[in-house]
Design goal:
Layout lengths: L7 E9 L5 E4 L2 E3 L8 E8 L12 E12 L13 H4 L1 E5 L4 E8 L5 E11 L4 E4 L2 E2 L4 E9 L2 E7 L3 E10 L11 E4 L5 E5 L2 E4 L2 E2 L2 E3 L2 E6 L2 E9 L3 E10 L4 E4 L4 E5 L2
Antiparallel strand pairs: 1-4, 2-3, 5-6, 5-13, 6-7, 7-8, 8-9, 9-11, 10-11, 11-12, 12-13, 14-15, 14-23, 15-16, 16-17, 18-19, 19-20, 20-21, 21-22, 21-23
Length: about 260
């Protein structure tokens, strides 16, 4: 069996005297032993570097797939990502090496959880996301970013969830280009002032990619925003923390800029 350290792969095998090497399986080779002793030498080459540059990882990511592997003999589970209980996980990698994770989880009680932590670049697109919360019973390992796709393993004592995230386009609220007052057809008002956004006078808690989060009492609004020439369109769900239910909001709710 031939193995290489991380970052390298087998280039070629050289035998002395020359014998025919047969690959039986990955990195496992056999040959017919001649009368004389045989020396096998291997040469290694560096694996292909990730196409992701260091600065390219900064941005917002939305979960697109989860695959759950149980620690017992149960079959692996791939949830329907259209379900509200699975699709609401968002992650933002900032240029100061911090990360924000917003997710629905029911490890302790129904809620939307917000975690702020740090991440560290390792090599070849691999990252360490420093998130390990004993109170919630999970930690993250093997984070990798390549070609606008983020993957990691969320590990608990009962299962390992393999997460895949897709990078989403940022809405340029903080540039000031969208500053102004916006009103929809039921006279709800949104005010944008650089990075400060309010909905009916209530501050927007977070914006990750094209998703905004607004807490109002026991309800949390999770809104997908689409910028248009007139203003923007919002649709999404309201999450009731007390009853642990999601309610779809009116779709294509247009907020038109008034000043």
């Amino acid at each position: 069996m031939v193995s290489a350290n991380s970052g390298y792969e087998l280039d070629q095998l050289i035998s002395s005297p020359v014998v025919e090497l047969t690959e039986k399986s990955e990195n496992v080779y056999t040959f017919i032993m001649p009368e004389d002793d045989v020396t096998i030498m291997s040469t290694l080459k560096q694996t292909q570097q990730s196409s992701t540059e260091e600065g390219d990882v900064v941005g917002s990511y939305t979960v697109s797939r989860v695959e759950r592997h149980y620690n017992d003999d149960r079959e692996n589970y791939v949830p329907d990502m259209s379900s509200d209980y699975w699709r609401h996980t968002y992650l933002q990698l900032n240029d100061d090496q911090t990360a924000t994770i917003i997710t629905y989880m029911d490890y302790t009680e129904p809620d939307i959880y917000v975690f702020t932590t740090s991440y560290t670049s390792l090599s070849n697109g691999d990252y360490e996301i420093d998130i390990s919360f004993d109170d919630y019973g999970f930690f993250i390992e093997n984070a990798h970013v390549e070609d606008d796709t983020l993957t990691f393993e969320l590990i608990t004592s009962y299962h390992t969830d393999y997460y895949t995230f897709i990078k989403t386009e940022e809405i340029p609220f903080e540039t000031g280009a969208l500053n102004g007052t916006y009103v929809n057809n039921v006279e709800q008002t949104v005010v944008v002032n650089n990075g400060e956004i309010t909905f009916e006078g209530i501050p927007v808690d977070h914006v990750i990619g094209n998703t905004a989060f607004v807490s109002v009492g026991q309800e949390l609004y999770i809104l997908q925003i689409e910028v248009t020439d007139e203003g923007f369109i919002s649709n999404g769900v309201a999450y009731d923390k007390e009853t642990d239910t999601f309610t779809k909001l009116t779709t294509d709710d247009v907020f038109v800029k008034t000043n």
